[in-house]
Amino acid sequence: MSDAYDTVVIGAGHNGLVTAAYLARAGQRVLMLEGRAHAGGALSTEETFEGFKFDLGAHRLSRLHPPVVDDLKLASHGLDLLPCDPCVFAPSPDGGGLTLWRDPRRSAEAIRRFSTSDAARWPDFTDTVTLAGAFLESIYARPPIDFLDEGGPGALTIVGTALRLRRLGRRGMMQLLRMLPMTVTELMDDWFETDLLRGALGALGVTGMSQGPMAAGTAFAFLHQHASPEPAVRETLRVRGGMGALAATLRAAAEAHGVEIRTGAWVERVLVEDGRAAGIVLVDGEEIRAGRIVSNADPRRTFLDLIDPICLEPGFLRSVRNIRFRGVCARVNLALEELPRFKGAPGGDGHLRGSITISPDLEYLERAFDDAKYGRLSRRPYLEASIPSLADPTLAPPGKHVMSILVQYAPYELSDGVWDEAMRDELGDRTVATLAEYAPNVPGAVLHRQVLTPPDIESEFGLTGGDIYHGQMTLDQVYFMRPIPGWARYQTPIAGLYLCGAGTHPGGGVTGIPGYHAAGTILSDTD
């Protein structure tokens, strides 16, 4: 038994690393326990085949929370970001495609080949998305409102939120409030007529979601992807060395402040004494005492697997069980002899440096979801692919490339059968066949293939149900309702036990914001 620590953090995902670093920076003795062999959670880059390195979990970085980058001095610990332009290439099944760039004017010119009216509307659309994204970022930059707090900090937060909303102006405020509950199909109907543009943008409202583009609230999911003041659609950043390099950077920052990190250390349960967290027990029986326990695991795994149910109220447990975890994403990694050659695409590789989206129209997305609704793998899946070796040649042997593909929809639970090797092969075959419709050389260019199903993602990274967001990002599971109403500010009913993962506000994505806010809450409670 050991009691040498002030705080134990369960799970060394990126949010856990952020929380641990801030607590240690404030002078606490912090121990991190990670069951996998490497810190980083879903920030994992591995040499799956000789010379070919793939991101196995998160594969794209939108925007790390600026205070995290600055406070933890991540640049001095090796952070090296590679901006990608264009942001999106959407190939057409008929050949050619649409390329969207960081510069709205350049995107408008690309759109003009399809529709002059859509090109004319593009600047206003990007302005509207930027305005809404900047507002969401301002909401995400603060802990959520506590509507049960009468006259305390929660009331002040409500006033501040209202003022920020009012600063959008009457038109901007009404646009935002109208957009949030809309379907992403309705949002596209408001703005554009070009199917390829509508499909490429609409896909951003359903990525990682067990919903189709006609589901209410998918416009919010689209805006969540743009919670930034940057005037670009789906800005993509890559990390030199892969997402695992970001994990190494965060680990170095945490250790520089004195955090002790133990890998291969699986936590079996949290000790609770007199209603307060008192330590943890590892699967090998080792007991570690600490005054605070912070869980980077998702809420369901934390409360249903690590806590004795007698320590929690039945109503609370019922709410936790009702959190929707619905993994619908699989990953297919391809080691390629040569780059994909998309039919009718521009020469060179410039158009392949961002995200490559196979979603030619909104009906395609809806039909892909129709299969998943009934527990079937999409016959024609939506694909979001990237070729990070273009920006970072260290990920593949000279002249060769790695292609990482997010495949949707691949339901966690199949209505007919299970995720065995045959289904895994079927998923890989459908993915390659879908790519071949747009880039016929792909099947012959594949040297190696890796397929990760939703159950694989669950077992590899501890993501319940294979849900990449630690719980679906629907309107009833965000902000003051994340993870459940009444417990949105990182505390739990057990004193001294906190949550810091993506199952808390503001949710999924590689931002570090949940970990940042959790650390702030813990330090405030400690004062």
UniProtKB/TrEMBL annotation:
The lineage of its organism: Bacteria, Pseudomonadati, Gemmatimonadota, Gemmatimonadia, Candidatus Palauibacterales. It comes from the Bacteria. Signal peptide: none annotated. GO terms for molecular function: oxidoreductase activity. Interacts with COX5B; this interaction may contribute to localize PYROXD2 to the inner face of the inner mitochondrial membrane. Probable oxidoreductase that may play a role as regulator of mitochondrial function. This is Pyridine nucleotide-disulfide oxidoreductase domain-containing protein 2. It holds the Pfam family NAD_binding_8. Residues 221-511 form the Amine oxidase domain.
